[in-house]
Amino acid sequence: MSDPLTRHLRVLRPAPGVFAFYDGRVEGHRFAPGPNWVDDGALSLGVASYAILSGDHALVYDTHVSRAHAALIRATLAAEGARRFTVVLSHWHLDHVAGTAEFADCEVIANVRTAAHLATRKAAIEAGTDHGLPAIDPLILPTRSFDGTLTLDIGGREVRLITANIHSDDATLLWLPDAGILLAGDTVEDTVTYVGAPQDFATHLTDLGRLAGLNPRVILPNHGAPDRIAEARYGPELIAATADYIRFLMRLKDDPAAADLPLATVIADALASGALTMFAPYEGVHRQNVARVLALGTGGDG
Ligand SMILES: [Zn+2]
After folding, report:
1. Distance from the CA of 92 to the center of ligand 1, in angstroms?
2. For position 76, which CATH number holds?
3. Cis status of the peptide bond prior to 16, with omega within 30 of 0
4. I want to staple 137 with a disulfide (CB 3.0 to 4.6 A). Which of 77, 126, 151, 153 is the partner?
């Protein structure tokens, strides 16, 4: 518990049988000195992973930003009665898979695209040359992959795995039909989505529509405000706000002057309604999103 790497890791309980493990958005705290993807890509924005515990079976949804984090997650769940662990990865990005070695004795499930991304990049990720340091060594690859959907029985509770192309082409979301809870990975974020592939915007919108069709009562994003995650205060409006933001980015090629608008202006309606909450470091994410969209130029179909 006194490990300095995890001293800000908060255990939240947004719903019965659902745990969130939240770190980041802590003024003055750094994971490591110098540029590194843990601080610069995850903790600065805030990052959560989740677990569903039913009986003695825990489904661990992402393994967080380090082995130390994952070890604390496993110990916390074991103290709550977990004897069996199944890992599901939301997508291949490093802040979601770094702690998997702590679950190397367990089934690790990912969709076929996540499995392929990780296998292709394994050597670079283990060398710390994919997104830089820290290296993730060893990188544990999925032991089971699927495509489309997969339904799991976790201690008698139905958990549906759903694939989507939003934020990355390899998203896996968890749907808890008994509670109307959608664990969304990085497909939606508060304050705004992080765009990796603007050429896929049309697909992102289609898949957001598919998620909205589930009529989720609660949405749990991996990057969002800790108080709203703790109190399960995200709902379908987060999907709608994400789609609105993507449509704004798609219009940029016809209205390049809008590229200079501050994020708070772009999402003013969603801030006013409470769908989104402004967290200042997302201004940088927005600037990067805009730059990526403009770099796509006239060759894109967005
Ligand atoms: Zn992430």
Report:
1. 9
2. 3.60.15.10
3. no
4. 126
